[in-house]
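Why this split exists: single-chain examples teach little about how molecules sit against one another. For that reason, every record in the complexes split bundles all components of an assembly together and asks for one structure covering all of them. Below is a record exactly as it appears in the raw files.
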Amino acid sequence: MLEIKDLHASINGKEILKGINLTIKDGEVHALMGQNGAGKSTLSNVLVGHPAYEVTQGQAIYNGQDLLTMKPEERSHAGLFMSFQTPIEIPGVSMVNFMRAAVNEKRKYRGEEPLSASAFLKLMREKRAIVELDSKLANRSVNEGFSGGEKKRNEIFQMAMLEPTFAILDETDSGLDVDALRIVAEGFNKLRTPQTSALVITHYQRLLDYLKPDIIHVLIGGQIVKTGGPELALEIDEKGFDWIKAEAGL
Amino acid sequence: MENLNSEKQYIDLYQSCSDIIAEHSSEVMNALRAEAFEKFCKNGFPTQKVERYKYTDVPEAFKPDYGLNIKRLNIPVNPADVFKCDVPNMSTLLYFVVNDEFYTKAMPKTGLPDGVIVGSLREASKLHPELVSKYYGKLADTNDSVTALNTMLAQDGLFVYVPKNVVLDKTLQVVNILRADVDLMSNRRVLIVLEESAQARILFCDHAADDRNFLTTQVIEVFAGENSSLDIYELEETHEKNTRFSNLYVSQQAYSNVLHDSITLYNGTTRNMADFNLDGQGAEIHSYGCAITDSSEHIDNNTVISHNVPNCQSDQLYKYVLDDKSVGAFAGLILVKKDAQKTVSQETNSNLCVSKEARMYTQPMLEIYADDVKCSHGSTVGQLDEMALFYMRQRGISEAEARRLLQNAFCSQAIEQIRLEPLRDRLHMLVDKRFRGELNKCGGCKGCK
């Protein structure tokens, strides 16, 4: 379970998050909606420990662990995964070496032996199939020369390799065509277990049609101003955010 | 007075010992000493005001009192013990040079095609004086005081000769071992001659077997005949008490293809100078380098690629990763002479400073006197990509491991240029180990402790 209490965060001295309160239980998928600049990406980046953001107040507790005192890699080992809005290109580091390092560090954290080369490649093959990622991409440098859609698919592939218990999808649907969106969303659904929970950031209903979130939050001006069931997303899709702003007196 | 003058001890040494030096060398090598001495006395050591030496303090490096083995006393050594860094999957012909003396007791028994000579420069110049004297000292310019000093003092080294149309299939691996019980200065001389259409690959590995202060001068002269092909790989894996001055001079005839890759993994103070002369049309030089430094290591690579005739190509790539308080310097001049039309040349030097104290001086230079050429040059100095680091850490990779992956990736471009796959694999591994700070297996090198 993830519990966020009165979380404030800023970047370059500018406060973006102004007191977030949010609880996500195991097995639940929550969607976070809101206009550009509302603080959605800030919240996800703060949760995974992006060094550019400064937390000025509040708490984020995941399964009893105080996330905000942990290094990014420790948060990853605790089960957090973020699908980046803009996946980073790392020239010269092959996908294979990158994933092997990640998988083996996770195994080391759990007290397990590193995977043998053949077991690792077998795992890569299996997980690649989930998002129909081309084997050629797996032999290239991380995200280098990948199309926008391939980069997003690659994010879900990495999620499949690392089997996180809490996934943050930061606009994973942006830049995807209809087929790629289906593959990515269905891939994500295949990876879900009763223990995994997720925070999904999106502007569009289309992704939510696949993911079927339990709860929808609306973030405006660094605060969650409205929370509701799946029907809230449909309403936003139809009417936009203005009525919510008016309702909140903003 | 003495302390003010680094040259004096070398002048005194030569004046009092030139007979002994000559006695333990060969006539061909002795023939050039007097003139070199004269030049050395006249010029002295270059100060940092001299353009090509501005990044390394030469008088300071030569100031300490080192012993020299001019009487060629036998220094006990067992190269097989010292040297265990073999290259798996690569069959080489293995030779040793101990300090500045070719080691005759562990030479490969077979494997050289007819007419090929690999061995002691001193002995070769006694056996084949006309052959050696035709080339010896013809490229090495004694107006450079390090070269002058080497020419004055060098008594032996390595000679490689590959006759016309002969292809050496196996790589020559030459392990330079520094071995001494006192602080030692060595002056190593190398002469490499490839006749028309000959082919060879030579891998030099520098190791230090003892935890002593070492000072080495090395002069390598390379004559690449028409249509010949030569790879020279130089790998330094010594320690912080080692000071290396290496001057490489290369002359290339028409359609010759030379690759030089200089890799500094562990060192103390190193200055590598390389002068490539493209003297025949259609010649190609590929000049690469990679340096990885930490603590207070100092690495200075200084190159000149001289396009003297039309239709030649050069490409150059040097990469440095500097940590702690280490200092790197790269100065590379591409000189395109007036007649050298249709020259194609590119030069890149990129560098990573991974600590705040590390310093890099970079100076890519182009001097073009022809009007129909295609040349580019550039350099960068930067830090590790913070976003890439964060991305990897989000996936559970520790910061140290993420840094190592990025640094390896950065260097791999210079390693990929190696034309021998097993050596390339080996170097990827050595570079990775270097970043891990892991030991390798040889005796006294810094990486081995």
